[in-house]
Amino acid sequence: MMTSVWSAPRISLRWLPVFRRNFLVWRKLAIPSLVGNIAEPLITLVAFGYGLGMLIGTVNLSGVAVPYLLFLASGSVCASAMQAASFEALYSAFSRMHVQRTWDGIMNAPVRLDDVVLAEMLWAAFKALFTTTVILGVMLVLHDLNLAALCDRVVLLHNGRITASGAPSAVLEPDILEAAYGAGLERVVLSSGRVVVVPR
């Protein structure tokens, strides 16, 4: 039976083994992939956010002054998601199809081309989601004061300059934080002994 090239894809659950195969291959290279996913936004945030951010200061968005680092961080998340999905869907999928001829081997199993293409699309979406989650995790660690309380040493930056440095108990003082963040904050010691910074 001849099907038209314009017919809708015939999709079954046979895309799952193809997706799993991509995941198992990626798992062997997960550590270098993680290092790349974390290093790229860190370099961007440090070089442009703190370096260029000192020169720019704030960006005016609809009458609201936004620190350049925050402006850059949101764009970095979007750009990294797009680049991860594009790279995986274009270069890596093409490499599996043409250079490695992985698709030829997969097509010898009872799998349709529609299932292989769907698995590749979902794999690209997964890689974009994973990359974005890692970058958001890096930003959370860099900006959440409550996580900073778990560190041995904390460095507080304001407008690209170091305003305080030392043990978390010395840096996470309300007057120091208010000067840096411009908001009323207070330090609360929980029953477990952990120090938490909350808005006043």
Report on this model:
By secondary structure, the chain is an alpha+beta fold. It has two domains: 15-143, no CATH class; 146-199, no CATH class. The protein has eight helices and six strands. The chain has a two-stranded antiparallel sheet. α2 runs antiparallel to α3 and α3 (68-99) packs antiparallel against α5 (113-143). 17% of the residues are buried.
Strand percent estimate: 5-15%
Q: Counting H and I runs of at least 4 residues, what is the number of helices?
A: 8
- Structural class determined from secondary elements: alpha+beta
List low-confidence stretches: none
Shape: elongated
Main sheet? 2 strands, antiparallel
Integer tally of domains: 2
Q: Could you tell me the mean pLDDT? A: 81
Helical fraction: 55-70%
Distance between the termini: 72 Å
Along the chain, the helix and strand elements come as: HHEEHHHHEEHHEE
Could you tell me the number of beta strands? 6
Strand order of the largest sheet: 1-2
- Backbone CA Rg: 23 Å
